[in-house]
Design brief:
The protein is α/β, with parallel strands linked by helices. It has a single domain (9-227), classed as Spore Coat Polysaccharide Biosynthesis Protein SpsA, Chain A (Alpha-Beta Complex). It contains nine helices and eight strands. Strands 5-7-6-8 form a four-stranded mixed sheet. A hairpin with a 2-residue loop joins strand 1 and strand 2 (18-19).
């Protein structure tokens, strides 16, 4: 809720009266392979309403420092031990549970591997449908080795900056390759863009639209992309 670029965005409605966080949880809790979903939020009182949304979806909650997001991830791992952790960003309302399961399968198949991802333009997928995955051992190593505020805030960027970790990427096939499509919500115009997009998505599959449906809709309405500003 304390976002500097779009304050209060977690509770803003995205599709009908469904808030950003609720849409994220409604979608990712349909992933089959992760054992548990945990909301890692802050101890700030303004984030109290987020706990109620998590409870609605049977999602566990841990609360920690607002600035030390990495620390919150370690808290979650301490409270709910696991061999590996999937990081799903809560400002990505179109996260795809199939993409989550695909990355979990990929991560298992390409061992030894500390870190894997199927997000961002470097993988070819639309930004905002994929996730990151890291082994528990690698996550704890990152926590031990970095005190840099930027790395603590962005959780796994330390791995990108440190080649001693084994990182592997799941790349998009031709049907899913849209590296120029950004579907996350950082700024007010991003919220406007996503609201207009979901209004055009099929009602029959709402709010569990597939990545294929999302890509097809943006392909057919490329004018929507003009709603987003180019920022540097």
């Amino acid at each position: 809720m304390g976002s500097h670029r779009l304050p209060g965005k977690s509770l803003m409605p995205v599709w009908k009266d469904m808030s950003l966080l609720e849409l994220v949880l409604a979608r990712i809790t349909r992933a089959r392979l992760p054992d548990r979903v945990v909301l890692a939020t802050t101890r700030e009182s303004r984030d109290d309403p987020l706990v109620g949304i998590a409870e609605k979806y049977g999602v566990a909650v841990v609360r920690g420092s607002e600035d030390d997001v990495l620390g919150r991830f370690v808290q979650a791992l301490d409270a709910y031990p696991a061999d590996a952790v999937v990081r799903a960003c809560a400002d990505n309302p179109l996260l795809d549970p199939v993409m989550i399961d695909n990355l979990v399968t990929f991560f298992r198949d390409v061992q030894p591997c500390d870190y894997a991802m199927n997000l961002g333009p470097m993988t070819g997928f639309p930004d905002g449908v994929g996730v990151e995955m890291v082994s528990a051992a690698a996550l704890r190593r990152v926590d031990r080795e970095t005190r840099d505020p930027s790395h603590r805030e962005h959780v796994l960027t330390y791995i990108h900056d440190n080649p001693s970790f084994v990182s592997k990427w799941l790349y998009a096939d031709d049907a899913h390759a849209r590296p120029g499509y950004r579907l996350d919500i950082d700024f007010p115009e991003d919220m406007h863009f996503v609201r207009e997009l979901v209004r055009l998505l099929p009602e029959a599959s709402a709010p569990h639209w597939s990545t294929e449906e999302i890509i097809r809709t943006v392909d057919e309405h490329t004018d929507l992309l003009k709603l987003r500003k180019v920022r540097t």
